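Notebook B, p. 112. Complex prediction, attempt 2.
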Amino acid sequence: MQAAATMPAAAPSRRAEIFDGLKATLPFIVGAAPFGVIFGALATAQGLSFPETMSLSLFVFSGSAQFVAISLLAAGAGPWIIWLATFILNLRHTLYAATLVGYVRHLSLPWRLVLSAGLTDETFAAMEDRYRRLGVKENSHWAFLSSVLGMHLNWNCWTAIGVLVGQQIDGLAGSGLEFAVVATFIGMVVQRLRTPGSQVAAAVAGILAALLAALPYKLGLTIATLAAMWIAVLVDRRLARKSALRQTS
Amino acid sequence: MSVGIVIAGMAVINLVLRCPIFFGADRIRIPRLIERALVHAPVAVLTAIIVPFALHLDQAPDGSQWLNPDLFATGAAILASLVTRNLMATIAVGLGVALLLRYLAVF
């Protein structure tokens, strides 16, 4: 976050940033395809109309919340249950915004609103990684925008295809293609495990997420994340105090 | 209540979760302690997504499907990342193992 507001003279062009943002998001775009098709087909199978299914992908634009919503709708759950599930499920998006806010502070309000509205797991992972490595350049937000629009367009195209092909998708679930998303996450995490704090964060998050996986609405994901961040801060503090002691003695 | 209202509510909730911090970006100053915790947010949240996926806990929360192609693909991707330090190589190896083990129907 401290890396923000460094603007070297020769920043990449707008076009180069748009291309690079798409490149950074490409594995997620590939990995989201089977999910989009499955969502479109499943929503149709559960009785949602084409406009209803598409407006979920267009305006909610959140894979996990959309899947939970259609299963709750099918189960006859009331709107408040579905809204509560959406809220709990996507609490982590607030965390994403807080992590990235230092990189977008200089942008105009419309820019900030558009970028934040498209803040999915995938775009967060790709952009956080990019900003941390490259810092903020003059046209960095164009990469962010191309990541958001690329994911959005891709998700909606595959949703529509899912609605159209309907039930002929046996075997797409679990085809293995969805591993592209997880593989990208793995690459990003492994390269960040250089400090004891981040190693502890990964260990705590992984163990707790596994132990709490049975909780509804991915509540385990949120709890595991927050607990891991908190414990990692304690580790960081302890190490900082130790090294301070060593310096004074 | 119609499905349309449910969807509109979900869209609003998502905006409420995603937008306010960027909206107030020029005024909001994040406290030091939270800023320090946020440094660990990517590793924490991504690991919390990876591990249940690798153990197929979404499909089987009791852990009965922990031995599956994605667990081995995860291991292969971690190794590839440690060895090559390259994201594309990590994705290629992980995805390759995930697809290959399914093709061979090992599990």
